[in-house]
Amino acid sequence: METTALTSPSALGGLRVLDLSRVLAGPWAGQLLADLGADVVKVERPGAGDDTRAWGPPWLADADGHSTTESAYYLSANRNKRSVTIDLSRPEGQQLVRRLAVKADILIENYKLNGLRQYGLDYASLSALNPRLIYCSITGFGQTGPYAARAGYDFLIQGMGGLMSLTGREEGAEGAGPMKVGVALTDILTGLYASNAILAALAHRTSSGKGQYIDLALLDVQVACLANQASNYLVGGAAPVRMGNAHPNIVPYQDFPTADGHMIIAAGNDGQFAHLCDVLGQPGWATDPRFCSNPQRVRHRDALIALIRSVTVSRKTQDWVALMEVVGVPCGPINDLAGVFADPQVQARGLRIDLPHPQAGSVPLVANPIRMSDTPVQYRAAPPALGQHTDEVLASWLALTPPDVDALRRGSVV
């Protein structure tokens, strides 16, 4: 499917992004900018492309049910982009990227420290050609410090950055031990920080006329996103520990067993706790000195949780959810992904989208969660096939003719 113009205005229409990143953090940032209307050109290795193209199964199935070469992983982070193949190891390929960078507003890359300097594609080289260029580098550990030259992956950073010390069953429980989050959350958060930084740099460029360099590290992002847990340590002096699904500062705020499974109760204040006690048929708990305020409930956590669990097993999850909703106590099921996409709220919000795809007919994707009244997110194109837009991008950005591109292709440059 080729990109098509849509009638609604876009927030970032007219901006050009050169995306030299692979895997998840950089592509996630690029996809967000693309959803908001930017023309994002994904530069990939000829014949191979983004590493995640090979990270299957599962693979997207074609109209006859046969597997294509498009992995579900790749599809998750590359919507609305155009794919160009260029061999950066070739001088001719490096020159092509330099020419594209001159036409770009933004460049995103996640090569290792100084990885693009050998090709003359580092910030110093490209900003000399295009002083308005906003150049975002994403690495595991940043451009400075003793670990700067190390490769960094999400799983590694979740461990080094403290997240795994907080995730998993409490010490002594069956199955206890550090646990990573079920998605590459550090990569995703880094992509979101990257897009925020890029938009801030764009705002600054409006007044200054100058681009700038953005140094983003997965480790920095992971530590920053420890949020209240980092603050608990810095203020209280004690390192937080794994607590399973419990909350370090709020009680009750965790999972509870029911007659047919489990549910989550998240009573965030004393009023909600009082309503919870009424629903559970135990109004006296709300005035019990051990439980009447959140600090007391945290102090007597074990006793209160045992009492609540003894009651919640008496009804089914959906029965409890319905009763809690009436009195405003936050409560819900623990869905698998089939349950997520069957949920009426998820369906009402349109969180699944289907885009036309040249091999599969259509591809199912998760919608962008941003809702904007005047410049809504646009879904212009499915994630591109490898090199799908090489000819059209080189023509539209660099005015290369078909014979020019054919010559590059014969020379294995593109």
UniProtKB/TrEMBL annotation:
Coiled coil: none
Molecular function (Gene Ontology), one example: CoA-transferase activity
Source superkingdom: Bacteria
Gene3D superfamilies: Crotonobetainyl-coa:carnitine coa-transferase, domain 1 (3.40.50.10540), formyl-coa transferase, domain 3 (3.30.1540.10)
SUPFAM superfamilies named among the record's database cross-references: CoA-transferase family III (CaiB/BaiF) (SSF89796)
Keywords: Transferase
Signal peptide: none
Protein name: CoA transferase
Lineage: Bacteria, Pseudomonadati, Pseudomonadota, Betaproteobacteria, Burkholderiales
